[in-house]
Design the sequence.
């Protein structure tokens, strides 16, 4: 056992507060130029950044995908990488238009698996109308990498002229969750634990551009996030602290599959902390909430959408849940996603 | 020994013809939308892609960096990643303005090494005036990744209103190499082999935006490439075949350090096939060649620049070298960079 002090631990990449602190202290504090003038940059910690040009403002985002196993019920690392990139742009209020991929594979990786992954990427890109315009391909010697890492960059155009930011929530806004939570997380966690469910749960991984577009068309979206690493709990806490408001949710209104609940009990996991890869948490103006909810429910990915809570000015930074058994509970940001290599 | 048929081999990531074929057959052929309308995309196989907007055209690029060892004489993986991204934009004729990084590290990675790498990235970004506007950070469990992979995306603005493409060479153009070749490649190869040189060679890794800007200010640049994986040999072959011309070079005019020559003899390597990380191969109009050479030589990175050859219309796709011993030799594209994890 090596001494772990001064070393990176799994929790440093798990999307929770330990990761936020590392990024702030080790990375952000060392970078001199952290944004383009008038743009959204590193300091905002948002789902993407913006590049204001003379006439237009574009949105960019990027993530590295390391999920294990690479094929899972409902998707694979390729679908995940493309959806994740589309979703980060979509929740910034940007229509995805172009992507780049940097693929690193281990020597000995099956070419037919690579083909299957590329096909899967292409299916989503074609569906959403996004171009893959550039890429890189590297091979690591056998034993130096477990399988494959797909790193993505995405570029989109603002749909309503300005970005949707985590800091946009205002007093009285309603909070919508676009579907049942935790399915991606529980699928990956259960594959690791070797659990098989009676009713098969599949990953929720899906592209959310259509859903976000419909929502924006139906009313004013004030903030949005896709709750990946750290789950709904992390996403709500980030929204509350960056918007300097409190978010009040009702446990009974949060859509969670019975199978997910059961698996969470077996594995000792909190569904609120499980990653979703095809869900959005959306803040909307109170007066537009019903119209937007209707619009979201009209999409394939959003048919189980629910209003789960609302925003208040007091107690800024807090997420507070009215539990089913009664009483209020503060939902703290998780330290980290419980399952490594979830995405 | 596993059967390697149908599996990825090191040569598939080595930047040569084996890699080009894999990318064409396995990736490109499966992607439906490969460019933005009016833009440069996947099919061009260039150093970047372009995104034409209403008023402007931006250039984007990306690469994943896997170099081993991560610290080497003259630089480290952070400097390499930032320079590589800047250089891909620069040789497309774009002023680098913004970057994103996706960093994946192995559990147990030293935080002080990460800090050193980030400092090194920042030094170059600050020098060139590029912002880091977004990033991702992931951790792989111990044993699942050897150290660190840094994946970069870069975004730049066209400096002269149109991109510099590999297909731009015309009959009569001169070919300039911006400095002595193969130093990065030989440093990494020699570290692997445990060779120590009497006179220390250091990696040539450096940002080339200033050099490319000076060159464009001094005259017409018709094509440019940074000769990384596959070295000068690959870069010239790519230019010749994409421009549908032949390139004629003189061996005695190619700048190569004596130490690099010696090490190549010891290791059985061809200096023309060794990666450079701070050099550009630049095609220029014949009448502008002297002015552009002078401008390049006025920069720190370009002080050893030389005109090494010229372009002809006949024998398209060929690179032909007049050797020092006399006679002509066809320079074929390498199958792959001889050293894995060179960049």
Sequence:
């Amino acid at each position: 056992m090596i001494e772990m002090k001064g070393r990176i631990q799994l929790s440093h990449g798990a999307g929770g507060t330990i990761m936020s602190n590392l990024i702030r202290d080790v990375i952000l504090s060392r970078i001199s130029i952290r944004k383009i003038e008038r743009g959204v940059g590193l300091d905002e910690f948002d789902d993407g950044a913006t590049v204001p040009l003379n006439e237009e403002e574009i949105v960019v985002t990027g993530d590295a995908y390391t999920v294990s196993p690479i094929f899972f019920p409902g998707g694979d690392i390729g679908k995940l990488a493309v959806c994740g990139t589309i979703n980060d742009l979509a929740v910034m209020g940007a229509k995805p238009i172009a992507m780049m991929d940097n693929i690193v594979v281990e020597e000995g990786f099956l070419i037919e698996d690579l083909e299957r992954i590329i096909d899967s990427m292409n299916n989503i890109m074609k569906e959403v109308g996004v171009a893959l315009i550039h890429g890189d391909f590297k091979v690591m010697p056998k034993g130096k990498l477990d399988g494959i890492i797909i790193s993505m960059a995405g570029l989109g155009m603002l749909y309503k002229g300005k970005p949707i930011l985590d800091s946009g929530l205002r007093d009285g806004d309603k909070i919508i969750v676009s579907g049942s939570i935790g399915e991606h997380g529980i699928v990956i966690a259960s594959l690791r634990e070797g659990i098989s469910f009676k009713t098969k749960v599949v990953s929720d991984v899906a592209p959310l551009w259509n859903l976000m577009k419909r929502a924006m068309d139906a009313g004013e979206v004030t903030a949005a996030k896709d709750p990946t690493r750290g789950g709904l709990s992390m996403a709500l806490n980030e929204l509350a602290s960056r918007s300097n408001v409190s978010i009040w949710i009702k446990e009974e209104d949060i859509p969670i599959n019975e199978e997910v609940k059961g698996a969470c009990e077996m594995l000792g996991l909190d569904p609120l902390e499980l990653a979703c890869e095809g869900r959005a948490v959306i803040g909307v103006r109170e007066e537009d909430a019903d119209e937007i909810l209707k619009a979201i429910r009209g999409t394939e990915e959003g048919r189980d959408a629910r209003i789960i809570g609302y925003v208040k000015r007091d107690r800024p930074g807090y997420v507070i849940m009215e539990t089913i058994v009664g009483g209020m509970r503060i939902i703290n940001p998780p330290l980290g996603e419980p399952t490594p290599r979830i995405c």
User: Anything to note?
Assistant: Chain A has a mean pLDDT of 95.
